[in-house]
Predict the structure.
Amino acid sequence: MARTCDGHPCRRAPFLAPGPHLGRLMPYLLLTGSTGLLGGQLLRDALVARRPVAAVVRGRGRQTGRDRLEAMIQHWETQLGKNLPRPVVIDGDLHEPGLGVSAVERRWIAEHCDAVLHSAARVSFESDDEAGEPLRSNVGGTQHLLQLCEASGVRRLYHVSTAYVAGRRTGAIREDDPVGAEGFCNEYERTKAVAEQLVRSAKHLQSATILRPSIIVGDSLTGFASAFHGIYTPLRLGYLHLLGKLREGWQLDLQLVESVVNGQFIDQLGLTGHERKNLVPVDWVSRSVMSVVADPNAAGHTYHLTADEPTTIGALAVAMIDAALTSLESAATVKPGIPSTLLQAEGFREHMQVYREYLGDDPQFVAAAIRSVRGGTACPTLDHDGLVRLWAWAIEADFTWRPPVAALPKVDLAAALAGLPGGGDGSNWSCRLDLTGPGGGSWRVAVGTDALVAAEPAAPGDLPRIALSAETLSEIAAHRLQLETAVDSGRVTAIGDGSRQILFDVFPRLIALLAAAQAPAPIAPANRPA
């Protein structure tokens, strides 16, 4: 009989495999924003490092939260050439009180999560009265997260803010300076400052750590970005205008590209090209955040995650020109762009004025605290080649990116185990089962006389551990691979006292459970309602 909670089926999720330590699983880190630019990188780094993490994700359309993350993780596995463990997936919505998390999941968070890393945010510089953004996500979402923390007893919060809560201040900005003392340049800055204050004033938190990156861009080595906000938007508009010129019959050459990037945007926005912008690559920001989370002495402080060497608007423009020329010279066709007439419209110029202030000269952010954190490093410098990689990736991706559709798992252990009751902490658990790759996760299971009798997400503690890939499990289930052969070849590992005997007890029951879960349902007779 399936486990129920208050009369309703309990939602289940695949769980992350543990680190290289033997049977013990460390407490989970609860993560928000894992489908965003920074949050996705944080999740990727956690999975690669085998750091137990639970991700709060909402579904989109026909995709569940699990589906959305699975597509991303499979993309990373293709890049890395290896299987990754899976996170806990908790259905939640930033816009709902307490994130809309169910009672059973809230209890699980209370028992197994010791900290929250809040990276979800809405990057929007203008206020949208109809949608209520960015106030709704940045302030309301933080309030809802704090409600969940209080209800579940999680007392450590790592809050991703922005260095631009400094607002209109100029000169050197230190991490302990007052926030927004001279006002703000846009709604994003203001709402992030309000969110910071909510976090700092939450009395139920034992420690509140504020992480303030500047302008996050793509990967420092590849240029990869999964989202294109902030600095990408005016550059995208410039590129679309260039495409519009080409569609109007202009000849592609260096002079045209320079006139569009420099003339239509730098000059029209009243910029000189000498304005300094503080850009930080997402891979460095993620490593820095995880260094802070991993260092117990780092909690409770404020960190600027900013570059020592800013980038000028002129350098950004030159890199954009090079990236655009290279892309367009090799393009078979020219995509539609922005026609010149639209650029002359009053509404367009008014819209671009938001970016006039955004693209102004940045203050000098002093990033002293991150250097005192174990594993903390200074931000790498983005040179011309690095900037070209950023813009080339954005152009190639057409300033939008969606991971490929996730391949269906060959064996869906999560679905099969969902039919078993959860046993609670009083159960006589037999072992922990860790599965990597599509359909993977981590569970603790209890073995009865002739079947698995209970299963639930793995929890901190010492249990014999069985680890393998989803591919290996599918081969064993299809009788293409003998269990003994898989063990002898290292494709299945058993760690801990008595684990080998438990392995041979668990697997026949596990294969039987999978076979039952995958068996087609009986067809109802035609004269009987289905």
Summary: The CA atoms of residues 3 and 294 lie 35 Å apart. The chain has two domains: 4-229+278-306+361-379, 413-518.
